[in-house]
Every structure is written in structure tokens, then in C-alpha cells.
Design goal:
By secondary structure, the chain is of the alpha+beta class. It is built from five helices and seven strands. It starts with a strand and ends with a helix.
């Protein structure tokens, strides 16, 4: 899912990639569904390739989003983090990711992360893990396939029960050939000519 979600530098919110050409992407805003073009010169960031610094290494964004989802019980963040102090933001981040790098992860980064989470939840996204996302897609596709197969069986069953059977009668003996044209009898003039000869 995060492979198709982007942020665009200089534009608020998040965008879903609708189509991609050689030098152009068409993006749709997750908030108001408006579509915009994004050219090669535009600085875009695909969420699937965003990492958060920790003291040991870096951790993928989807894991942090999952931690926020667990903390917030799969709902939006209720407190106003846009007006929060740096200490409040770091304290919240410490609950979500205890070993985050406090020197390289800035309060502005935390605000952006929390804003992204809220936008995704509002847009109806609940699965952030790429593996879970693939499993869910496969399950949805198999459910759709099963439903389609069931509907097809029901239609076939309905058709066979509603159609009336036409009786087959055996042929009795050879059929006589029917003539398409009848011979016309000779006219009176023809008879007279034959008598004169």
C-alpha cells in the first residue's frame, strides 16, 4: 500500500499514484481526491522507502505506523500535536519507538509522521505492513473469485430450472418427398395445334 502513497515537496498532505508515464505521474490527494500532475523535477517521497533513525539502525516507516496504530487503537490521534512542544513530541515518539535517535529525528519530522498517520487513517488505510497488505489483497481476490463462481453456479442452476424441456418425438417411417412446383395442364391452344399437324 505504501508503495503507491507519496508526499510531494511544497504540497500538504499525501497523494496516491494513479498512473505513471515516462516523465509524469498523476497523483490523487487522499484528503480531497483532487488530481495533480507530478513531473520528474518535483521532489516526491514514496512512503514505502522512508525509514526512521534509531540508536542502532533505521526502522521502516510502516513499523512505526503500526506502533502508532496499536497505541491509538486503530483510530486517529486525538490530541493536537500541531501545537505540541518539542518535549511533548519527543515524549510521544518515545512511547511509539523508544529507541528513536533523538538527535537525528527532529520535532518537525515527528509532526510530519503523525500527520501522515492521521491522513492514512482518515482515508481508510489500516494495513501498513507490505506483507500483510499482499495477504489481504490475495484474500480479497480469492473471496471475489469464490463469490463470482457461486453467482455463476446460481445463474446456471436458475437457467436450467426455468427452461422447459422440448419433447423429442421419434420419426415414424420414411417421409415422402414434397414437390415444390406443380405441372400446369396443357391449354386449349396447344391441343388445337397438335390436331392440325
Amino acid at each position: 500500500m505504501l508503495k503507491t502513497i507519496l508526499s510531494v515537496s511544497g504540497k500538504p498532505g499525501l497523494y496516491k499514484m494513479i498512473s505513471q508515464g515516462k516523465n509524469l505521474r498523476i497523483l490523487e490527494s487522499l484528503t480531497d481526491k483532487k488530481r495533480i500532475p507530478a513531473y520528474e523535477s518535483d521532489k516526491t517521497t514514496i512512503l514505502a522507502y522512508v525509514d526512521i533513525y534509531t540508536n542502532e539502525d533505521r526502522i521502516p516507516l510502516y513499523k512505526v505506523l503500526n506502533n502508532i496504530k496499536e497505541k491509538e487503537s486503530q483510530k486517529k490521534i486525538q490530541w493536537d500535536f500541531t501545537k505540541a512542544t518539542s518535549d511533548e513530541l519527543r515524549a510521544y515518539m518515545g512511547e511509539v519507538l523508544p529507541d528513536f535517535d533523538r538527535e537525528r529525528v527532529y520535532p518537525t519530522d515527528i509532526k510530519r509522521l503523525l500527520n501522515w498517520y492521521n491522513i492514512l487513517v482518515e482515508a481508510g488505510y489500516q494495513v501498513f505492513d507490505p506483507e500483510e497488505d499482499e495477504k489481504q489483497k490475495e484474500e480479497n481476490e480469492s473471496e471475489e473469485g469464490e463469490e463470482e463462481a457461486k453467482n455463476t453456479k446460481d445463474e446456471i442452476k436458475k437457467e436450467t430450472t426455468t427452461k422447459k424441456a422440448t419433447p423429442i418425438t421419434p420419426k415414424t417411417g420414411p417421409q415422402k418427398a414434397t414437390t415444390l412446383t406443380k405441372q400446369q395442364p396443357a391449354t386449349g391452344k396447344m391441343r388445337q395445334r397438335t390436331k392440325q399437324k
